[in-house]
Every structure is written in structure tokens, then in C-alpha cells.
Design a protein that fits this description.
This protein has 54 residues and is mainly alpha-helical. It has one domain. It contains three helices and no strands. The longest helix has 15 residues. It starts with 12 loop residues before the first helix and ends with a helix.
Amino acid sequence: MAEIAEKDDGATFKELGIDSMMGVEIVAAVERQYQIKIEDDDIASFDQQFEQKT
């Protein structure tokens, strides 16, 4: 397992080192784990919401 450095809660996806492919994998894992569907429009707005906090 990769070691994860502590990051600020307001960190953007880019600052966390999350690229688009990793983002897709994260969303797919959340959908499987919680048996939900996250709409594409909602996914596209995630990073924008985090960017606005900084």
C-alpha cells in the first residue's frame, strides 16, 4: 500500500495527485461500495467545487 502524506482538507484533486483516470476509479469504487450511481454532471462539478474553496 502506498504511503499517503497528510493533506489539507481544501486540497484540489491536482494537489492530491489525482488524475482523471484515478478519479474515474475512485468514483467507480464508491458506486460499488455504496450501490449508488453518481451522475456524470455531478462528477464534473467535484473538482470545480474544490477549486472554489481555495
